[in-house]
Known about the structure:
GO molecular function, one term (chain B): thiamine pyrophosphate binding
CATH class of the largest domain in chain B: Alpha Beta
Strand order of the largest sheet of chain A: 1-2
Protein name (chain B): Thiamine ABC transporter substrate-binding protein
InterPro entries (chain B): ThiB-like
Largest interface: A-B, 56 and 59 residues
Largest sheet of chain B: 10 strands, mixed
Keywords (chain B): Signal
Helix content of chain B: 25-40%
Distance between the termini of chain B: 63 Å
Shape of chain A: globular
Pfam families (chain B): SBP_bac_6 (PF13343)
CATH topology of the largest domain in chain B: D-Maltodextrin-Binding Protein, domain 2
Number of strands of chain A: 2
Oligomer: heterodimer
Number of helices of chain B: 12
Structural class of chain B: alpha/beta
Amino acid sequence: MAVPAAFFALFFGYPVAAIVGRGLREGGRWQLGRAGEVLSDPDVLHVLWFTVWQAAASTGLTLLVALPGAYVFARFDFPGKQLLRALVTVPFVLPTVVVGSAFLALLGRGGALDEAFGLRLDTSVWAILLAHVFFNYAVVVRTVGGLWSQLDPRQEEAARVLGASRFAAWRKVTLRALAPSLAAAALMVFLFTFTSFGVVQVLGGPRYATLEVEIYRQTAGLLDLPTAAVLTLLQFAAVAVLLAVHAWSVRRRESALGLVDARHTARRPEGAGQWALLWSVLAVIAVLLVTPLAVLVERSLRTSDGGYGLAFYRALNTLDENGTFLVPPAEAIGNSLAYAAAATLIALLVGGLAAAALTRRAGRLVRGFDALLMLPLGTSAVTVGFGFLIALDEPPLDLRSSWILVPLAQALVGVPFVLRTMLPVLRAVDVRLREAAAVLGASPLRAWRTVELPLVRRALLVASGFAFAVSLGEFGATIFIARPDSPTLPVAVSRFLGRAGELNYGQAMALSTILMLVCAVTLLALERVRAGRAGEF
Amino acid sequence: MRHTVTTGLAVALGASLLAGCGSGGSAEDGKGSKTVTLVTHDSFAASKKVLNEFTERTGYKVRVLRGGDAGSAVNQAVLNKDNPQGDVFFGVDNTLLSRALDNGVFTPYEAKGLDKVPARLRADPEKHRVTPVDTGDICVNYDRDYFSREKLDPPRTLDDLTKPAYKDLLVTQNAATSSPGLGFLLATIEKYGKDEWQGYWKKLRANGVEVVDGWEQAYNDRFSGSAAGKGKGDRPLVVSYASSPPVEVLGKKPQPEQAPTGVAEETCFRQTEFAGLLSGAGNEKGGKALLDFLLSRAFQEDLPLQMFVNPARADAKLPELFTRYGVTVDDPATMAPEKIGEGREQWVKSWTSLVLK
């Protein structure tokens, strides 16, 4: 309990507090009036309105597009279902920058649609919304579909026998049972799109900004730290409210439902209608989820003379004369992997200890701690990076020039994933097994190694895989604190995208492809070791 | 037991990866006395020959660290002050100078050769915290081809840009993040004054001005007259520099009668770029040597064809390309760094709400 608490106090509480201080204090006095000034500024209200509006629109659109998918995954059995389920999850762990660049390649100037139909959406809200749907499709399929597959179909059939129409039976039985998980999925999607950074940064142009992007612009572009700090607090408050609602809905979700084993509820589609539904869902997945990634790969393999080749990949290994980097961009791959490995170790240590502490004790305080550890997931990554920059800059904690800063920030985002994966599994371990081992003379270490470790090994692997993928793609915090001579993959991609010219664009696509492959491989490996129901993700 | 081994392996693998990055990414690498680090923006360029000459003269190797466009690079320097990323910073211009000086980014040093720089280019005369290195004019450029095809006279003044004939033709940069964008905004403020400039931008917006984030994107991607963009852009007017037309001629055989792009001479704003010694530099001695070198004739005469700006030194010879194809702007708008410092934040903020929202 002490280690995770200290970790959070130091690397989360302290930087956030420093931001508050920077934003609201001047000359040693609190300037609460400034918050009012910022909050009544029409531009800020405009950004806030856009943030809420696009998050709501993205959430609605995602639910609309993904619910048929959730149904198909829950109720139908078809060949390749497992693989497809892994495939739709790939976008969720992709770095947002990659999602942004994939959609740029699809919808941007000279993009695939531009070449085919002269259609450009890169400076419109549609590109952002579509990218968000792409990103969160899996959240709905997994959260809602997971529960749906365990609902007993016979309940609905019973209602039909009792005379309810088809729609009424669905509405009164199935929808009612699904409602909490629908709410939870909607909230998750809303939270992710509310704090969207990479996607909006790449696709929004100078015109559209979410709070997250605006915080970044105020800091890196205008150096207006007070405004950035107030915006950070505003976002912080919004996210805290959302998380509180989320926690409440999770508790609601634990209501008693007659759940059955998912294996018995899925069957082969029957009749033209069901087959049509299955095929249309597959078509949506192909168009929405596979096409952007395919375009990304295709763009990375082009050469300047119109053919195909590995020219852009080779260019990654050379140091361009007027380059953006001090090192060949290929080194960013090594940096990223090393940072992500370090971040994973830190996240496992902190998250594992926290999970252990939460398993051993119960009570209100512990529940609060649990919620607190989830905060970084919803807190803007930009805030964390910004906080690190202004808080950890004086002895004894001057870490600004230390490489450990990046993995620390990334671990902060990884901990909630570790916690959510480990907690249910640890809680399921029977305490008496350990006691028996102790009675038989095993030392505490040996008892842990021979009894608990084998039981939680799978969850541990899944947790580390998630933490690794999340750290690898972390962009918001890293872009603040990664030094120019040691960029990570997402930062390198965003820099390439910010520069004109074919070669830079091609290299951005090539790096994105590499990043996508690493994430996809990690995820497919996870699908294989996944315990029956480890965690909530 | 086998399970324990795999888990152990995974952890060991992570640890070995970790060991590999212990030394990377720290600022300590460049602090050897034989290297001097120049922190700058993306547009900095110098020929290898000249950099080697510096190494021969002084024994220091130059490491160049580029951090985004001019605005972001300055802000990085401010956020990292007292723990700088290098020894010398190059590329803060008169539009952002006050921000760097007020935040104490630079340490005073009077570079050799400063007496050869015209007084009107110098700033901070008491303390010499910064050294002027180059100067250039930010002006609207036009694509000659387009206007001769359309049988339309290219625009000459700021007023022209709001006329219906030039609707949807101009692309400029975000004044919040790009120095030419900010320069162009200042040119309009200087011309129309505090009360009228917002009205001017409203007209410009109604006339379909496009705003992109940086100069590279505007000039190479969006401007139809740039050779680098292969003519893929669809905007024949762009905010760029008076020295951009010579760049378009560079490497063309045979040399054309006139450059393919022209400059609207009454839209210009004079910009001066400065360099300075960063406070807390690890290699102060090397940094001073590098500042002297930036003002040396060797560097000053190399600079026009590298960065396409004019040297600050009055006695530096201009290359033929500049004298033949370049435009000398007689009366550019300009503004004192102090005045820019006072108004900048508010102007940029109003501009953002006017043009981008």
